[in-house]
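Entry under discussion copied across for reference:
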Amino acid sequence: MFVEKLAVLLETDGMPRVAGRLFGLLLVSAEPRSLDELAKQLGLSKASISINARLLEEKGLVERVGRQADRRDYYGIAEDILERTLEQRIAKIRRFQQSIAEARNTCLIEHAIVRTRLENLDTAHNHLIEATARALDDWRAHRKRRTPSTSRSR
């Protein structure tokens, strides 16, 4: 099942499995869902869903949505999820690259093989940042060209 596969995949990235299951279910849901609906569908407690929904919301993967004349909170996939995840990846790569740069600048590196390894990592991460930033720019340009009728409304 897709939801479980996604849960396992996100778990390897440090997310709780419940958050992965919740994200997977919301990803294939056309409309935002209430905590009650999500708990029932996933066979989990409402408290567990609530905690993990807030975690996903903090990470910018889901959004809390209100409905008129309904006091319950609903959660759905963020409209700009691709942009948010690419921005997060760029930030993560930059943090790693900064650590490498710090090591290159502050550590006494006597062996050429170590210097070369760190230089290669720095260069590779530079390329990753540039390529991901280009992909993000391309995606943003693509979104602007889309007609309003193809974008989802809530």
In short: The chain has two domains: 2-77, 81-150. Helices lie at 2-11, 17-27, 35-42, 46-58, 81-106, 112-145. The radius of gyration is 20 Å. The chain has a mean pLDDT of 90.
